[in-house]
Amino acid sequence: MSTSGITETLTIRMPADELQRLRRVAEILQRPIDDVIVDTLRANLPPLLDDVPREMRSELAMLEKLPNMDLYREVNAVMLPQLVTQYDALLEANAADKLDDAGRQALTAAGG
User: Fold this and answer.
1) How far is CA 23 from CA 8, 13, 14, 43, 63, in A?
2) pTM score, whole prediction
3) Nearest of 29, 44, 38 to residue 3 by alpha carbon
4) Which of 1, 9, 13, 53 shows a CA-CA span of 20 to 30 A to 103?
C-alpha cells in the first residue's frame, strides 16, 4: 500500500453512502478497503513539487503562491489549452512513476 513502508492511521468522517460504495468496490476488487482508498487518493490528488524534475521546482514554487485567477492567467498566457492537458498528463505519469525516457524529455521540454 505505502511506497515508503510507513503507514499511519487516519480517522475520517464520510457519508454512509460513500463508505458503502468504497466497501463495495473493495469487495469487487477483492482488495482491502485501505488499498482502495490509497489508490483513489493517488489517482486524484494533484502533483506536488516533489513530483516534478528538480530543475523546474523553483519556477513552479513561485506559481504555487499565486492566487488562482493569477495562476490561471499565467498558465494560459504561456501554454495553449491542449499543451496544458498534455503537460498535466505527463506530470501525472511522472508522479505515478510511469514515465519513460521520452516522457521525461517531453516533461522537461514542456517546463523549460
Assistant:
1) 20, 15, 13, 18, 38
2) 0.49
3) 38
4) 1
SS (H, E, C) the chain: CCCCCCCCCCCCCCCHHHHHHHHHHHHHHCCCHHHHHHHHHHHHCCCCHHHCCHHHHHHHHHHHCCCHHHHHHHHHHHCCHHHHHHHHHHHHHHHCCCCCHHHHHHHHHHHC
Task: State the residue for C-alpha cell 503537460.
Answer: 87
- Going from the C-alpha of 29 to that of each of 17, 26, 32, 36, 40, the distances in angstroms are 18, 5, 9, 9, 13
pLDDT bucket at 40, cuts 50 / 70 / 90? very high
The confidence band for 1, taking pLDDT boundaries of 50, 70 and 90, is very low
How far apart (Å, rounded) are the C-alpha atoms in residues 6 and 25? 24
